[in-house]
Design a protein that fits this description.
This protein has 11 helices and 13 strands. The two termini are 23 Å apart. By secondary structure, the protein is of the alpha/beta class. It has a 7-stranded mixed beta sheet, with helices on both faces. Strands 8-7-9-10-11-13 form a 6-stranded mixed beta sheet, sandwiched between helices. 40% of the residues lie in helices and 18% in strands. Helix 1 packs across helix 3 and helix 2 packs parallel to helix 10. The N terminus is likely disordered. Belongs to the bacterial solute-binding protein 2 family.
Length: 340
């Protein structure tokens, strides 16, 4: 993830703030609770996602809108112009604070660079909750609502171990990128679930993919050149998994290689159903946002302040459960609860 310089605004009139709000990518006053009335006493909640095009964040916005309507709150949303756009998120925070929001829910594009802007918002009494991704340090926000990414990795690691039934594993790990907490947690969880440690001889190739399908395919091609007998593939997410599947299929290796992944998007679950991915750990962006909105409303109305980490759940999804790997749901359940 790129590091962007944090912009600090010394002063801004209400008119300037309103005009600037129109320039923020994806910023829109939704007013779900009272049809945008902005009446006195109405709780105002802001949602800032990494982008407004990724299906994960589209589902998150859907959850926030539903929760705002159910709780009689007014919701405004904003997003970075691209994944990594810290400056756009800083501007969105400033505009929402100027608009008088009671709380902000944010999926940080840059977990470190966003912290000063969040600190400034909190100093003005705004409750700030991170969704999906923590800030660095984690206490940069009042609370975190997110998947337990270590557990997500652990679930698919244990599943892969059980499916191999004692057969010697030749593992490729298709990871995210250096220094990204989500990627490290999932990777380390997979290792624990499989019962191995970093550097184990069974890990024959590791490549970064940035969670991209084409990069996942290229990474898998590189791994197959290095170790043609790979039989287990861990992937950071389902796009990377589908890239790996494409590369394996081209080499005639798709049927005898076990692919496991994390996310639970609809495309990924359909790939589980089709047999391209053996299993995935499904996370729930709609619940993250819905729980976040409820927390802001309770804080504004009852002075109930949320803090710490809140696990929003993760489920192993597979149509081929393995004895000893723990509870799992099938692809029908996954499709009923997927996003995208």
């Amino acid at each position: 993830m790129s590091i962007f310089r944090t912009r600090t605004t010394l002063s801004r009139s209400a008119a300037t703030a309103a005009a600037a709000a129109l320039l923020v990518a994806g910023l829109a006053a939704c007013g779900e609770g009272a049809q945008g009335s902005g009446g006195d006493g109405e709780v105002k909640v802001g949602l800032i996602t990494k982008t407004d095009t990724n299906p994960f964040f589209v589902k998150m916005a859907q959850g926030a809108k539903q929760a705002a309507k159910a709780n009689g709150a007014e919701l405004s949303t904003a997003a970075g112009k691209f994944d990594g756009d810290n400056e756009g998120q800083v501007t969105a925070i400033e505009n929402m604070v100027a608009a008088g929001v009671d709380g902000i829910l944010i999926t940080p594009n840059d977990s470190k660079a966003i912290v000063p802007a969040i600190k400034a918002a909190r100093a003005k009494g705004v409750l700030v909750i991170a969704l999906d991704s923590p800030t660095e340090p984690r206490d940069g926000t009042d609370a975190l609502f997110a998947t337990d990414n270590f557990k997500a990795g652990e679930l698919i690691g244990a599943y892969a171990k059980a499916r191999m039934k004692g057969k010697q594993a030749r593992i490729a790990t298709l990871d995210l990128a250096p220094g990204v907490a989500v990627g490290k947690l999932r990777h380390d969880g997979f290792l624990k679930g499989y019962g191995i440690k970093a550097g184990d001889k069974s890990i024959v190739c590791s490549q970064d993919t940035q969670g991209d399908q084409s990069k996942g395919q290229a990474a898998m091609e590189n791994c197959l050149q290095k170790a043609p007998d790979i039989n287990v593939v861990y992937t950071i997410n389902e796009p990377a998994a589908l890239g790996a599947y494409t590369a394996l299929k081209a080499k005639g290796r798709a049927k005898d290689t076990l692919i496991v992944s994390v996310d639970g998007g609809c495309t990924g679950v359909k790939s589980v159903k089709a047999g391209k991915i053996a299993a995935t750990s499904q996370q729930y962006p709609l619940k993250m946002a819905a729980d976040g909105v409820k927390a802001v409303v309770e804080h504004a109305e009852d002075d109930k302040k949320v803090s710490g980490y809140h696990d929003t759940g993760v489920t192993l999804v597979t149509d081929h459960p393995a004895a000893g790997s723990g509870a799992a749901k099938d692809s029908k359940y996954g499709l009923d609860n997927c996003w995208g």
